[in-house]
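User: I'm putting together a teaching handout on how multi-component assemblies are represented. Below are the sequence lines for each component of a complex, exactly as they appear in our records. Could you produce the 3D structure of the whole assembly as structure tokens, so the students can see both representations side by side? Please keep the chain order the same as the input.
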Amino acid sequence: MKTSYVIKRILLTVFIFFVVVTLCFFIPRIGVSDPASRYYPPQTAGMTDEEYEIIKEITREQYGLDGTTFEQYVRYMTQLFHGDLGTSYQSGSPKVIDCIAECLPWTLVLSITNLLISLVIGVLIGTMAAWKRGRWQDRALLNASTFTTALPSFFIALLLSFYLGFELEIFPAYTDQNMVSNFDWSWEAISTVMYNAALPIFSMAIGGIVSYGQSTRNSVIAVSGDEFILTAKAKGLSNNRVIYGHTLRNAMLPIVTQFGMNISGLIGGAVVIEKIFNWNGMGTLFLTANSNNDYPLMMGIMIFMSAFALVANLLTDFVYSLLDPRVTIGEKR
Amino acid sequence: MKALEVKNLKVVFPTEEGIVRAVEGIDIEIEQGQCAAIVGESGCGKSVTSLAVMKLLSTPPAIVRMDKLEMNGMDILHLTDKQMQQVRGKDVSMVFQDALTALNPVMTVGKQIDEIFLAHGKLNFLDGQEGQKKHINVRKEAKRRTIEALKLVGISDAELRYKAYPHQLSGGMRQRVLIAMAFACNPHLIIADEPTTALDVTIQAQVLDILKDLQKKQNTALMLITHDLSIVMNMADVIYVMYCGKIVEKANTRELFMKPLHPYTMGLLGSIARLDDKRGKFVQIPSSLPSPMRKPAGCYFHPRCTYATDRCRQEMPHLEELENGRCIRCWNYQEIQNAGK
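Assistant: Of course. Below is the structure of the complete assembly, with chains in the same order as your input.
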């Protein structure tokens, strides 16, 4: 890996980031004639139209919606360069960064746990299915994958929330809102979070486990047929050494790519699931911001998500080139 | 004591379209320090034979049967998988055809040779001091021996190459690494499956020289599997000619080249280019190998044989033993010889 390539790659990432920010800025404003309209106070009796216009103007200035869209854009970008994401339109005018900081950990609790569970269990199941190729373990995985590809995770979430939540009352179907406000790092508070998070995590992890399982299985089977596995056996290595030292090491390469792609979705991947279980994370925050035309908050969340995704992609590429010595990215052959 | 003795080896692959009889009862004997070549066209069952001897064919799908499999007087046939792991790499090892695919792409070549010593090397004993435990760093010792092995096959800068990945080496260098691997534990027998087919002709000669040199130096028996009779000439002591899963002729190298008996062998020899050739063109064997699922009745070679008679079309000839260990599977070899004179 060449330093010049790394720098080029980082610069490209920064460029993409600004394109994304620009698009995020203009797209929600397309077709909205006056986004500030919902925040105007009502025109009281005896107030002339001129006076009301002045009030409107003041309101627009308050919300940063005065001037043309392009002027707003320049203002926003200047602000962004100074590291300021602005103020939300919510009552109390909280800082956007504070809103995000409040919700982000709750989303990460769900998504990171989900990703780790999916990865670990999926790889284990996939390896076993490849080992027992054609036997019932393998067929079970194949059937499960047909099932979960056809059923989106939000549908699984609805089923789980209905049967395990409302009917059997094993897990809460709806997140306890006191969980967030009462959280104090005590063992009790942590276990409450785990209890509440069980269904959302489970409904996402089913698909994840099966997807990692299926790709691991295919990858392991493909690698098992490679000739260097025969070489390893001909060297008289033990079965374990052949599987862990040679087969899995090579079979994991596509899994790393999949993992990297999933990491980039850590923040924004659970919007619908969060809504179903009323989980106070980034997804719920984004939906609220969206329905309130809360531009600064929407922008802030999208900027955060895209920056995270871009950095994750960048890191995946770099990690991959460390794992596979054949990948010499950016070097011309 | 023979380095390898195989009796009546049969390998069958049941497939959906029918049963493939890849190897149909062949006997192979290799003396210690001897080089025996198995020669035949692609698809004649050579590679399957080598894998069956290593007990590396996955069963299922393959069905492997043999009456006897001995290496250096040791019965291999009845060993368990665990015991077999101890034999592979230590008593018998393999050189594969394409070193690029035969080496693990994400592991340095040094580490790949280390593994053999770590599995078989008895590294916690210094040479000749068995029983006396002297603690040495096992990994360091493996590395030391690996570098030695790399030097043995003529790899310069062995310390540097130790850390190289397979794709960073040239084709010839990779093949040398495979040879170093095969010779690592001084096995009694090495099976080389088309060891030079993937290489340029100039590199081929170098690699064969190293292989021959090491074989002589370490008195290892070598089973050389190839479709190329020209490389066999300088390497092999004995040649088995294989056709459609059967041995059709076995002879000392000199005798085979001087006086081939089987029409198939004659055809193979006729397709070698020679400097002293006055024929002006190659004698080629017409048509191609029959499908292993629809082998012809009688002698398998008869559809391609210019000397075929009615008997050849009906009856499979048996492997007739002649003087000097020579064997021939042909009804008419005497007539053919006489006609040629």
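A couple of points students might notice: The interface with chain A takes residues 51, 54, 56, 81, 85-90, 93-94, 96, 98, 101-107, 115-116, 119-120, 165, 167-168, 178, 181 of chain B (CB under 8 Å). The CA atoms of residues 95 and 179 of chain B lie 6 Å apart.
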